[in-house]
Specification:
133 residues, mainly alpha, 74% helix, 0% strand, elongated
């Protein structure tokens, strides 16, 4: 299976930037949120590029698609947590809105990657094996 290395994927690069930005914004949060929302924000943000990388490193397209799907879930989780942080007034709303825009872009990119992987899975399953010829 010929697959682009994860470090060359734009979605991985953008999600890594998102993690750094989430770390920076969470520094503004009051200390009392450090083990609650802050911890959850960081975990879900880190999960996105981590799952892209792990799926990319797996030996099958099906595994890759599964991990991209998990990254999509983490993106939705992060978006929810950012919305909550905005509602609670934990950071500048415009900063959070910027992160939400990046989340949306990452989610769109992951959807396209997932669709491409699903198409590949379908085409691989249609190719008859040498034994069946």
């Amino acid at each position: 299976m010929s697959v682009t290395h994860f470090r060359k994927l734009e979605v991985w690069k953008l999600s890594m930037k998102l993690v750094k930005d989430v770390y920076q914004i969470s520094e503004e949060f009051p200390v009392k949120h450090r083990y609650g929302l802050t911890s959850q924000l960081l975990r879900s943000a880190i999960s996105i590029p981590s799952n892209i990388a792990e799926g990319n490193g797996r030996g099958s397209t099906r595994d890759y698609a599964r991990f991209v799907s998990i990254a999509l879930g983490s993106t939705a989780e992060l978006e929810t947590q950012l919305l909550l942080a905005r509602e609670l007034g934990l950071a500048d709303p415009s900063s959070i809105d910027g992160l939400l825009e990046v989340c949306d872009r990452v989610g769109q990119m992951l959807q396209r990657l997932n669709q491409a992987l699903r198409r590949r899975i379908e085409s691989e399953s249609r190719v008859p094996s040498p034994e069946s010829r």
